[in-house]
Design goal:
By secondary structure, the chain is an alpha/beta fold. The chain is built from 11 helices and 13 strands. The protein binds acetyl coenzyme *A.
Length: about 325
């Protein structure tokens, strides 16, 4: 038994901040940002838009795409590193908003690897026959955790949410390889504002995302091809068997470098970071939803999802589009 994806959805904030706007906020330029990252614009959650509202919007779109009612969902997992509240969980708030009264709900934080880990977790429940349906969501308001005065990070990130509905299926394949490297945690950090030392006074720099960009870059371009190779070997496949590699959209140069190292054409490494920036756990499901709605995913296509991020953590999962 595996879980097949039977619907996808996404929800993107209305406001668009292009590189020109950022160049009015910090010393940078459209040319620098495009060349180093591939990002042209990012969407920012403002006003009533929150991590919960984005997650619920993506969930509704995925349910509609699947032709399912919220009551049919038995499990909701939200991957997020930027929840609006610590309690109740984002997943329970989504449950309330969409009326998925029969679902068990919990959140999962694996930073930018979050959607991949949520997919793996849902697959584990479905393959064991514990639940027959699941809704998994990656949702972020990273703009809340971004230091808009730090040009080395603020140019990268954006807000948004993506979701997938899964249904248990007798057919199909699923394989995964995951790793965590806690020893490298310091290269990408963000302290909680709830800690006593940060609770009073102006927000401390430690409570925004801080990153050693070069180290993250080196980590991603070496570990992503490695973990995909591990997965292919484990499943007895080669890169030629895979229709698309859906990578976490952290930086277009990372995706290009991975494709090159794997001697695989970029056509099989879709990229949409130009319009969204890095949306952490939301980037893979937003990309998948775009591809699904464009009719690019065909039954029988083997897909590899690969994520990496704070922790550090990384992994790759294989599934067949049904
Ligand atoms: N505009 C203009 N100049 C800049 C900017 C900017 N926004 N940011 C840095 N610079 C300058 C630096 O000060 C430096 O100047 P110097 O040479 O005079 O000292 C120069 O540009 C080069 O800076 P680097 O940091 O070496 O630039 P690099 O090529 O490494 O690019 C970047 C930086 C884009 C952050 C890159 O390292 C990267 O993408 N890393 C991966 C980041 C990532 O993927 N993070 C998220 C992954 S996990 C997750 O998704 C949460």
């Amino acid at each position: 038994m595996t879980g097949k994806i039977c619907g996808t959805g996404s929800c993107i904030p209305e406001a668009v901040w292009d590189n020109q706007k950022l160049s009015e906020m910090v010393e940078t330029s459209d040319e620098w940002i495009r060349e180093r990252t591939g990002v042209a614009a990012r969407h920012i959650a403002l006003g009533e838009e929150t991590t919960v509202s984005l997650a619920a919007g993506a969930a509704r779109a995925a349910l509609e795409n699947a032709g399912m009612s919220p009551e049919e969902i038995q499990l909701i997992i939200v991957a997020t590193v930027s929840p609006d509240k610590l309690m109740p969980t984002t997943s329970c708030e989504v449950q309330k908003q969409i009326g998925a009264v029969n679902a068990t709900c919990f959140d999962l934080n694996a930073a930018c690897t979050g959607f991949l880990f949520a997919l793996n977790t849902a697959q584990a429940y479905l393959s064991q026959g514990i639940y027959r349906t699941a809704l998994i969501i990656g949702a972020e308001s990273l703009s809340q955790l971004t230091n808009w005065e730090d040009r080395s990070t603020c140019i990268l990130f954006g807000d948004g949410a993506g979701a997938a509905v899964l249904r248990a299926s007798e057919t199909g394949i699923y394989g995964l390889v995951t790793h965590s490297v806690g020893d490298m945690g310091e290269v990408l950090t963000c302290s909680s504002r709830n800690r006593k030392e940060y609770a009073n006074g102006p927000a401390a720099p430690e409570t925004y995302m801080q990153m050693n960009g070069k180290e993250v870059f080196k980590f991603a371009v070496s570990k992503v091809p490695e973990v995909i190779g591990e997965l292919l070997e484990q499943e007895g496949l080669t890169t030629a068997d895979i229709r698309y590699f859906l990578l976490h959209q952290a930086n277009e140069r990372i995706v290009r470098s991975v494709a090159k190292r794997m001697k695989t054409d970029m056509e099989r490494f879709p990229v949409n970071i130009e319009n969204y920036g890095n949306t952490s756990s939301a980037s893979i499901p937003i990309l998948m939803d775009e591809m699904n709605r464009k009719g690019l995913l065909k039954p029988g296509d083997k897909l590899i999802f690969s994520g990496f991020g704070a922790g550090l953590s990384y992994g790759a999962s294989l599934m067949e589009w049904q």
